[in-house]
Amino acid sequence: MAFEYDMAGRGDSSRYEYLYRCMRADIESGEAAPGQRLPSKRVLAKREGVSIVTVEKAYAQLEAEGYVQARERSGYFVALRQPVRVPAADVRTARISRRQEQDDAVPVPSGASAAPVSTAASATGASATGASATGASATGASVAVGEGSARPSAQPLQEFHGGSGLIADFSWPAYNPGVAATLWSRALRDTLAHEGDRELYAPQPSRGSLRLRRAIATHLASFRGMDVDPGRIVIGAGAQMLYGMVAQLILHATGAGMGMPDAHAPALGARLPSGVRLPADASQPSDASLPLDTPVVAVENPGYPRLASIYSAYGFRVHPVPVDAEGIDMDGLDASGASVVHIMPSHQFPTGRVTSVTRRYELLGWLAGGAERYLVEDDYDNEFRLAGRPVPSLASIDVLGRVVYIGTFSKSLGSALRLAYMVLPPVLSRRYDDDLGFYSNTVSVVDQICLSRLLESGDYERHVNRFRTQRRTVRDLFLDALADTPAGGMCHVEEADSGLHFVLAVDAPCGEGRIVRLALRHGVRLAPMSGYVQASAAARPPADRRAARIEDMPLPGYGDSRPRFVMQYDGLTPQAAPQAARALAAAVLEANAARA
């Protein structure tokens, strides 16, 4: 019978984790039917002999992953629309032997060593930012803040109107390097002191240090539940470098092109001011200028703007697809004609939404619908879910071998270190040696060994746990202070507990632009959600309409017209959080003064 378990069989698992896994298995197998009501927390706690808190944690994790849906005053109901089945396709790829790839020996190509894959695609290592705040759900619902619940020294303070330094800048991930810098400098000294010259200065495989790849595989197994062959891992100097490599691999695999940067694309290294977007024609070449057989990549909309530039640089036609409450819209994906989709399912940037389990299996079904389809899973801040367990990765349930998993250490150690990695599916891993194996690895060997030591010793995990706790504290300080202001009821937090940003929706009679200007006047810089909305070439307005303000257009995936802001609090300090909240509240009150 569904939802009846033997808790004595949990082994080393915690009670809440065992209960969550058993209930998830019942839902995935169809033992619990779609729409079925789950036992109340009190009933289930009594039946299984556990505390109500244990049941609450299990239900919260199931809700975060999209397995169940909470209905006010009604309880919890199964949200997965159909039992999980392997997509109908040739699943022989799921049985490919997990042999260790023989790339330990460094191939010595004739001629000089190769340059990095793409200097254009090697700017900041962080693929985006992300996270959340107390009380928001993973399904897009918002709660009023009042209900329940120094920038890095190397960077000069920006000036706002009035001549004083900013109190807080939420418009970009202004990482405060303090603890991470201390950790890295100590680890670097230990590495140089205790590692032999042969380890530090010997040539490394194109994929990167085998020692580091093994350490990353162990880390992924313990933290993400992924069984990864180190031979399929590739180390790169930042996520953007890896995006370019993925683009080249897929182009080679599909025979669509040579994967060289396109002269149409703009320079990728420059960071745009917050809220400012490239004109539609600058983000990618016009459809008319591309051959009819140009491969199409689908990206999320709103989404990370540089993705379009990077894929365009390698010859892809970029098609933005709206994101709804469950993730990227499947009808839009089907209509795009894409053979590649690049998504952030565990914490979408900038909306903060988590792709539901139903949508995840729909995406795997989409992969099965074409022989040359691939999905790029961008897991840029997977270590910073602030409540519950990490959401399982798409790569961990990919039986077709079509998911490329990309992770980065930029959120935990800072983007200055330029450390990222990708896990290639078997077919692309084999192609890597043939098509890109001639490249020299783009990350310093010393840095790779240093990171290996941090992962092996457990120091990295302890650092992440401390940093996660610190960021949760800062977030709560800001939100509690905002709730205590007269503007608390006008501010609504969306998509909490998933990473290092949340979305703030504001009740106001004006658009985003006015609130941005008022907040800057009070010392707070904001990033409007409209700054991340992208338009495909086919959907661009005529030239005489392009002057229309983006903030006046409806945001994809939202059912109301509230101004929304992406609140990236990576660099916010505990001391500045309350002051920043009061300054923002003053701006919101001033924006609402027109109603009086």
The mean pLDDT is: 77
- Give a quick account of the main beta sheet: strands, pairing sense, barrel closure: 8 strands, mixed
Q: How much of the residues is beta strand, in percent?
A: 5-15%
Q: Count the strands?
A: 16
Q: Spatial order of the strands in the main sheet?
A: 5-12-11-10-9-6-7-8
* Helix content estimate: 25-40%
How many domains is the backbone divided into? 3
Rounded to the nearest angstrom, the distance between the terminal CA atoms is: 59 Å
What is this structure's SSE topology?
Blueprint lengths: L14 H15 L11 H8 L3 H13 L3 E4 L3 E4 L63 E3 L23 E2 L8 H17 L2 H5 L8 H15 L8 E4 L2 H16 L25 H4 L12 E6 L3 H9 L3 E8 L2 E2 L1 H7 L3 E4 L13 H12 L5 E5 L24 E6 L1 H4 L6 E4 L2 H10 L9 H13 L1 H25 L7 E4 L6 E6 L5 H10 L2 E2 L38 E5 L7 H17 L4
Parallel strand pairs: 4-15, 6-7, 6-9, 9-10, 10-11
Antiparallel strand pairs: 1-2, 3-13, 5-12, 7-8, 11-12, 13-14, 14-16
